[in-house]
Amino acid sequence: MKHLKLMPLLIAAAFYMPRAHAVELIAVGSLSGLAFDLSTATAGPLENGVAGNLLGGLGSGLAYAGGNTFIATPDRGPNASVYNPLVDNTTSYINRFQTINMVLTANAGPGLAYTLTPTLSATTLLSSATPLSYGSGALGTGSGYTLGSGTPSLNSTGHYYFTGRSDNFDPSQGSANPNNGRLDPEAVRVSRDGKSVFVSDEYGPYVYQFDRATGQRTGSFALPGNLAASRLSSSGDAEIAGNSSGRIANKGMEGLAITPDGKTLVGAMQANLEQDAKGTLRIVTIDIATKATHEYAYQLSTGTGVSEIVALNDHQFLVDERDGKGLGDGSKAVNKQLYMVDLAGATDVSGLAAINAGTPSLNKQLFLDLVPVLVANGYNAKQIPSKIEGLAFGADILRGGVLTHTLYVANDNDFSADSGDNKFFVFGVTDADLARVGASYTAQALSPVPESPGYGMLLAGVGMICLVGRRQRNEVFRKEV
């Protein structure tokens, strides 16, 4: 009888006790792959006839910028239409990043627990204050293909724009030359002070720092020389054939993380270097202040390459390992998995000329297998995007009294209608989920970007000036920069 009297109390306690949820899909949002971004100055047709401001490729890189704000980097632009194989069908698409407002609201009705509403709020073009090297178009002579100069028509003194066209390089120098005009942005992170973005690229590979307000490059990080290719070509196949060391063409630094304290960048190569064993790639840490680097070996499990890396804390990271199957490939998605890796106590392989399957690699554990989770939520395997490439932790939420971290996962739709819209999948991750693989989470420390003087007066209680300042600030934020 005594135990029976306790039963209602135990049931009540269980009902109100915070529970840890398994990692689950809590929201999905999208931006149309047929829409245009806010850069009207680049709206004209590219060499392949596609509009120069098509809103695509947003999941190549995704970064959290505080509040509801995220930064997304399209890659080198639309190149699905065959028009000139001498440049791998790349175009003079001007590189940029998109600022997106992501509103996550609880859903009281059927379906997923939350509704995600993404809204594009700004488009920022990437440029250099000093001149860059561009292709002359002469490589098309006598080939049956015509090609004009790769110099962007928008260029002006102090504004030399980066583009995705593969012949925009200085042939007398190696791929690490920071003055090459070609850029293939694959990942992005926001600096601790909120004023800069760091972008990693596949062509160099490069890691550049850009002013978040203007898009102008403010810094360049010298990566280890063993990552660079010495002989360049506008054709990826020719470039691979011409090099015995360095990054494989179009498989450079695909992922980029930043530690929560904002002091260290962590870049992941998509695939092995030419001199390294297939399936064994390098992860590089970069001290932002000193620019010192270290390298670590990562062994692929099921995917064909790594597409992203995001920090859990100062030594643990989630790595996105995937294949190329799914929507856009005409096949069923198979391997889209997130692994937890730990740099603590890992072997630095910087001094090794080549690494192989026997080289000590990072400890890794499977954290989230995306395909079965999406299938369980009604997605046909053929409708799961083939290129899951962007990872970012957003603002924490409370679910049933449990602190839950929001993990945003985005796809690169290759600017192609065949690959669907720009999707943003949101997963709920608890500390219990992370503890299952021996991990923990620390949010990145982000300082708010300074407001305009008018908005600052709001804090002093000057109401009318506040309204003027906020209105002016919003107008600046919405314009194309």
Automatic annotation (TrEMBL):
InterPro entries to which the protein is assigned, alphabetical: Phytase-like_dom, WD40/YVTN_repeat-like_dom_sf
Signal sequence annotation: 1-22
Keyword line: Signal
Highest taxon, organism lineage: Bacteria
Segments forming domain Phytase-like: 55-415
Region (Disordered): 165-186
Compositionally biased spans, kind Polar residues: 165-180
Any Pfam family hit: Phytase-like
Protein name: Esterase-like activity of phytase family protein
